UniProtKB/TrEMBL annotation:
Name of the protein in its database record: Peptidase M14 domain-containing protein
Record-linked InterPro entries: Peptidase_M14
Listed GO CC annotations: extracellular space
Upper classification of the organism: Bacteria, Bacillati, Bacillota, Clostridia, Candidatus Gallimonas
PANTHER family found in the cross-reference section: PROTEASE FAMILY M14 CARBOXYPEPTIDASE A,B, SLL0236 PROTEIN
Domain of life, per lineage: Bacteria
Organism: Candidatus Gallimonas intestinigallinarum
CC cofactor: Zn(2+)
GO molecular function: metallocarboxypeptidase activity; zinc ion binding
This protein's UniProt keywords: Hydrolase, Metalloprotease, Protease, Zinc
Annotated family: Belongs to the peptidase M14 family.
């Protein structure tokens, strides 16, 4: 089974509150599962927005199994199913597989984008198009898209986030074992967000970092537009090569399993 089939089966078997928040560019379901209660704080945790980082979807399932003590979290385990399958299965996983092969020489191992060659984590309306690594043509990575929210995956997550109105968001990526939290906050929100980032550091052991020259991400949009704390956690050791496989999961779990429990408790 591939990662999409694993998440789909997990979703079917989950007995709690759940919903399909939208469809990918190729029509695959985007799943969300709720853990905890609707007493505040309520957060959103996303995983596998970048195709080659599909291993984080398995962390998502463990976070759901772990549950919460306080508050609630909507877990969106596989934001980019089309891209994840390109990494796992190659061009045959996409309707336009041959066209996409031309963008990467047929090697999808480093692919980050969706099935349209758009990097979903630079497609958000938060200083969109100002990132130093942004490109303006379909690519395995860093293509900002023709406009903010041009992609069905980012539109679905945007609309879901606006519906939930979360108190915080958490985005899991790989790799590097660092935490990004800053995006031009004014002093009062800077202090609030820095405190919560410190909670994540204490749980994971990952240091805080500043994403210099980065813009247009989900975290950035949540900080700038919703004015809430938002964090990107880069799980997995930096000496590992993309794409991280399931062999990297035990170490990731050891450092990250209690993140949602602790963040909701100490919010």
């Amino acid at each position: 089974m591939n990662v999409y089939q694993d998440i789909e089966a997990f979703y079917r078997e989950f007995r709690g509150e759940k919903r399909i928040i939208g469809k990918s560019a190729e029509g695959r379901d985007l799943f969300a599962l709720f853990i905890g209660t609707h007493a505040r704080p309520v957060g959103i945790a996303t995983y596998a927005m970048h195709a080659r980082e599909w291993v984080t979807a398995y962390l998502a399932m463990q976070h759901v199994r772990r549950g919460l003590v306080t508050g609630g979290v909507w877990v969106v385990p596989l934001v980019n199913p089309d891209g994840a399958l390109l990494v796992q299965e190659g061009a045959r996983a996409a309707k336009q597989g041959e066209r996409l092969c031309a963008l990467c020489g047929g090697d999808f191992s480093l692919w980050k984008a969706n099935a349209r060659g758009v990097d979903l984590n630079v497609n958000w309306d938060a200083r969109w198009g100002t990132g130093v690594q942004n490109v303006r043509f379909p690519s395995p990575a860093n293509f900002i898209g023709p406009a903010p929210f041009s992609e069905p995956e980012t539109r679905a997550l945007r609309d879901f986030t606006l519906q939930v109105r979360p108190d915080f968001t958490l985005s899991y990526h790989t790799k590097g074992e660092v935490i990004y939290w800053h995006f031009h906050q004014p002093p009062l929100r800077f202090k609030r967000d820095r405190r919560l980032a410190g909670v994540l550091t204490r749980v994971t052991g990952y240091p805080l970092a500043e994403a210099k020259g980065s813009a247009g991400g989900y975290k950035d949009w949540c900080v700038e537009k919703l004015k809430i704390p938002a964090f990107t956690v880069e799980a997995g050791r930096d000496d590992l090569s993309h794409p991280l496989g399931l062999c990297s999961l035990p170490d990731i779990l050891q450092k990250n399993l209690d993140v949602l429990v602790t963040l909701t408790r100490e919010f």
